[in-house]
């Protein structure tokens, strides 16, 4: 007998919740059960516009979703400043937690969330969708091959997009009371995660923010860069910005090989994604070209990466609910390491671009 689908509630009607609502519908082991907003009318409108089943419940508060006994798990796309309150309450109500990134304003807040999650034995996962794309697993195979890639030496990650004026003035990501981490928390989170992923989640020894980040009038970061350093000589750099053309580049360099991709956060196409690799690269005899040339690799998927994220999260929740399994600790561990590096970058900026130990 097939297990019943995991029933999701959503706290809030943020734009990103439209994408994740669709992902919950597409995932074969999940269903939309409820949505809550501070306004009943807004919640009803969101449910109607985003294809919620007729059986889904609509609430005029977040608390009502958490009090619904039919809800197994909640997706929380609220502003980062509200995460600790609602994530802790969700865990206390025994709701499994899919939390939008950045997961907290700092590690101290995140530890409060993770303590509640651990105490209630509920599954936690952040919403870093590209981690679940099958391309990510294919790239890891290359990076893990000592003959083809060798030893990791450097990583460069860049995520920028040119936000419109309305975004720069009104979006929650530029408001100090809502998402005080700005571009560092939004785009920088992805850059830091990609660097840690490439280094098998070995934390760097030190972090150094680069000079001249861009702030808005309220003091929120609109663009910044940083370098990361490991004791064994590995280095990494990243740049994140709300002020430059859409770019999602990742370059990973080893002693034998190099990996490149240009859409690491969101693939150019929903159901196929590519990356290029080069191994033992050199020049032609007259130095007029490369030999061997880099090779392109394409990975296809039946489900978009956000649906694969929901599918995996729901599988873990189902294992707990139906099989008595314990929560998978991998995902909160990865979230915490990402937050640790993010905190170090922020502290380096605040200290006048001093080197900060992680």
Would you kindly provide a brief summary of this structure?
The protein is an alpha/beta fold. Helix content is 35%, strand content 26%. The chain has helices at residues 15-26, 40-49, 62-67, 83-92, 107-120, 134-143, 165-170, 182-198, 305-323, 330-350, and strands at 6-11, 30-36, 57-59, 73-76, 96-99, 124-126, 152-162, 206-209, 214-215, 221-229, 235-241, 243-254, 257-261, 272-279, 295-300, 356-357.
Mean pLDDT: 97
Major sheet description: 10 strands, mixed
What is the approximate shape?
Answer: globular
CATH class call of the largest domain:
Alpha Beta
What is the beta-strand fraction? 25-35%
GO molecular function, one term: nucleotide binding
Domain GFO/IDH/MocA-like oxidoreductase: 146-259
Family: Belongs to the Gfo/Idh/MocA family.
Protein name: Oxidoreductase
SSE map:
Layout: E1 6-11, H1 15-26, E2 30-36, H2 40-49, E3 57-59, H3 62-67, E4 73-76, H4 83-92, E5 96-99, H5 107-120, E6 124-126, H6 134-143, E7 152-162, H7 165-170, H8 182-198, E8 206-209, E9 214-215, E10 221-229, E11 235-241, E12 243-254, E13 257-261, E14 272-279, E15 295-300, H9 305-323, H10 330-350, E16 356-357
Parallel strand pairs: 1-2, 1-4, 2-3, 4-5, 5-6, 7-11
Antiparallel strand pairs: 7-12, 8-10, 8-16, 9-10, 10-11, 12-13, 13-14, 14-15
Helix pairs in contact: 1-9, 4-5, 5-10, 8-10
């Amino acid at each position: 007998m097939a297990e019943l689908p995991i029933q999701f509630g959503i706290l809030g009607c943020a734009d990103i919740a439209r994408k994740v609502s669709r992902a919950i519908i597409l995932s074969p082991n999940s269903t939309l059960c409820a949505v809550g907003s501070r306004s009943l009318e807004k919640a009803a409108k969101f449910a109607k516009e985003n294809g919620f089943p007729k059986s889904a419940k609509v609430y005029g508060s977040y608390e009502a979703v958490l009090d619904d006994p039919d809800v197994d798990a909640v997706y929380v796309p609220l502003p980062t400043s509200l995460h600790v309150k609602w994530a802790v309450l969700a865990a206390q109500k025994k709701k499994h937690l899919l939390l939008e990134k950045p997961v907290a304003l700092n590690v101290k807040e995140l530890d409060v969330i993770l303590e509640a999650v651990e105490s209630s034995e509920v599954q936690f996962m952040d919403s870093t969708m590209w981690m679940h794309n099958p391309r990510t697993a294919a790239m890891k195979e290359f990076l893990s091959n000592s003959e083809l890639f060798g030893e990791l030496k450097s990583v460069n990650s860049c995520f920028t997009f040119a936000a419109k004026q309305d975004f720069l003035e009104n979006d929650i990501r530029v408001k100090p009371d809502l998402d005080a981490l700005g571009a560092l928390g939004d785009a920088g989170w992805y850059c830091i995660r990609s660097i840690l992923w490439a280094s098998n989640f070995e934390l760097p020894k030190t972090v150094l923010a680069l000079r001249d980040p861009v702030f808005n009038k309220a003091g929120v970061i609109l663009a910044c860069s940083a370098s990361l350093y490991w004791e064994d000589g590995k280095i990494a750099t990243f740049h994140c910005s709300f002020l430059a053309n859409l770019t999602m580049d990742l370059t990973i360099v080893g002693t034998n090989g190099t990996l490149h991709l240009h859409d690491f956060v969101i693939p150019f196409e929903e159901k196929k994604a590519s990356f290029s690799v080069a191994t033992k690269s050199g020049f032609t005899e007259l130095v007029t070209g490369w030999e061997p040339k880099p090779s392109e690799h394409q990975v296809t998927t039946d489900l978009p990466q956000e649906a694969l994220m929901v599918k995996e999260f729901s599988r873990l929740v189902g294992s707990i609910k139906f099989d008595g399994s314990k929560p998978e600790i991998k995902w909160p561990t990865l979230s915490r390491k990402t937050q640790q590096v993010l905190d170090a970058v922020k502290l380096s900026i605040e200290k006048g671009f001093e080197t900060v130990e992680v």
